[in-house]
Amino acid sequence: MVDFEAIRAQFPILDQKIHGHPLVYLDSAATSQKPQCVIDAESEFYRTINAGVHRGAHELAALSTEAFEQARAKVAALVGANSAEGEEEIVVTGGATAGLNLLATAIGNASLGRGGEAARRFAVKPGDEIVVSEAEHHSVLLPFQELAARTGATFKWLGLTEDGRVRTDDLDEVITERTKVVAITHVGNTTGAITNIAPIIRRAHEVGAVFILDACQSVPHLKVDFHALDVDFAAWSAHKMYGPTGVGFLYGKRELLEALPPANFGGSMVELAWMDKPAQYMEPPARFEAGTQPVAQVVAAGVAAEWLMNIGMENLEDHEKAIAAELLKLGDIDGIRILGPRENVDRIGTVAFDVKGVHPHDVGQFIDAQGIAIRVGHHCAQPVHRHFGLFASNRASSGIYNSVDDAKALIEAVSKVRAFFRAE
Ligand code: PMP
């Protein structure tokens, strides 16, 4: 049995009062808090071995490189990716948004004929198709919409069921022989719904398309294995998985990373550079890691990955399932509508809700006054909100440190909102 109370005690930030109330943090979908071991790892790195990686002959540079590569291996282990030298499948990025833009740009470069013969499998031509879903965060929607605009491809999407799940009943019509790229979220950041990705991946591969997974909201909550899922690429951020801000990771099947042209150019990604002919780029992952890397943050993210593996993602899933069950009782309150599946099946503890007659910012402030942190707004997912006939909503989202009591505290606070604002 994992002692989740002891785990909560590892988060110093939670040990404080907000407006006189003990802090209840229910905004982990935006960013998670950090355990002491992650905070320590970052400062320890700066205290003892701070140096650039993969360059310099001095001892600190060697130690830094070793710590960086070990962190990459830990992150790879968390998601079932390869990390042996020459086989690496994890690229360090500035976050999920940076990783998704890197992919869209690299595919765009392949479409311009960059990257030679190997990269032709990624090339998108006018009249080809790029497919996303209506559940996407803007960090998927916009880079791939731009890619479609740049390449002349048709932009298409999988719609949503009434309760906000990505539809898979019309896959054959939406994903066709002309589809080159399919980019889909693993878990909706508004609905909390886990996408039924298996048939989408099968269909994408059947037509020869590349399948890209937005794993931002799955890696911190579920046991994921990218090999088993057979995704081609996946992007996520460290700051939502108890790691630092400013870094993220891009998984790619090794053979695909080897075939993909670079997207960012600069130091540390080139074997040979000349004035009068094109450069010769390094093998992945270095080819995609131009510039000085956020080494301290990557090292700390590695500690977060190891810490999660020690707790066991299955244990975390069970723990958060109980919190989700409690949060879903929000839907029983008069005037509250949940934007997403009501049943605690194939979903996580991210529950967005509308309070009839009360603006989300008013709800957020009322809840905050009681020490409870939730997110309000459109959560960078405007089409999802439009699907529900809204522009904004309130969102409670669980993390490893939450308890069923936290969800109960939220429910009690939310149940008073409409009376307070005299909402009809
Ligand atoms: N996709 C999803 C599903 C997300 O929840 C987020 C973060 N809100 C992102 C992408 C973008 O992540 P980041 O802002 O860390 O780059």
UniProtKB/TrEMBL annotation:
InterPro entries on file: Aminotrans_V_dom (IPR000192), Aminotrans_V_PyrdxlP_BS (IPR020578), Cys_dSase_SufS (IPR010970), PyrdxlP-dep_Trfase (IPR015424), PyrdxlP-dep_Trfase_major (IPR015421), PyrdxlP-dep_Trfase_small (IPR015422)
Top-rank taxon: Bacteria
EC number: 2.8.1.7
Database matches in CDD domains: SufS_like
Domain Aminotransferase class V: 24-410
Catalytic reaction(s) noted: (sulfur carrier)-H + L-cysteine = (sulfur carrier)-SH + L-alanine
Pfam short name (any one): Aminotran_5
Cofactor field: pyridoxal 5'-phosphate
Keyword set, alphabetical order: Pyridoxal phosphate, Transferase
Function: Catalyzes the removal of elemental sulfur and selenium atoms from L-cysteine, L-cystine, L-selenocysteine, and L-selenocystine to produce L-alanine.
Family assignment from sequence similarity: Belongs to the class-V pyridoxal-phosphate-dependent aminotransferase family. Csd subfamily.
Name the UniProt record assigns to this protein: Cysteine desulfurase
Source species: Bifidobacterium saimiriisciurei
